[in-house]
Amino acid sequence: MERNLTHIALFAALIAVLSLVPKIDLISGVPITAQSLGIMLCGTVLGAKRGAAAVLLFLALVALGLPLLSGGRGGIGVFMGPSVGYLVGFPVAAFVAGLVVERWRAPIGVAAFAGAVLGGILLLSAFGIVGLRAYSVLIAEGVADAKTFTWVQAVAAATPFLIGDTIKAVLAGAITQSLARLRPDSVLSRA
């Protein structure tokens, strides 16, 4: 139990550390960050439940006001912005990535890459698109000049993330595979 809590806390800290990599702001208001690599690694290394728990711990700290998101953002207000879908999708993405690694008995690097793609790219992008569309509709009702994203525009706004996310999925697979070789007991998704 103590070991699980330590891993969960360490991976929540890893997501926070990845916020130090400078963000790239996009016109949609959703920045490109390195933190999604941390989300992928939470699942591929810790497994479904522990990975989701690490992400939930991170999000709880953000909600409490700690400036742990890229660009030093934090507080409950970030859950009411254009990136709300991604934030809500973070724990689900980690859970799915971990579930793939736990259940699919392919070589660990292949399973980790597949889990990162399924959870950290496809599922997280779907959450992000729905969140951006919902945010733009809700904000447009209250603000006359607000930009409203159609479904097509919301999908188009998510496409710049695909190249970087694919690189992050490759890194998640390689890092998970390296950890499995160097310290097999540390990859809890296969324990």
Automatic annotation (TrEMBL):
InterPro entries: BioY. The keyword Kinase does not apply. The keyword Zinc does not apply. It holds the Pfam family BioY. Signal peptide: none annotated. It is found in: Cell membrane. Keywords: Cell membrane, Membrane, Transmembrane, Transmembrane helix, Transport. It comes from the Bacteria. The chain crosses the membrane at residues 29-46, 53-70, 76-101, 108-131, 151-175. It is a multi-pass membrane protein. Belongs to the BioY family. PANTHER family: BIOTIN TRANSPORTER BIOY, BIOTIN TRANSPORTER BIOY-RELATED. This is Biotin transporter. It comes from Gemmobacter denitrificans.
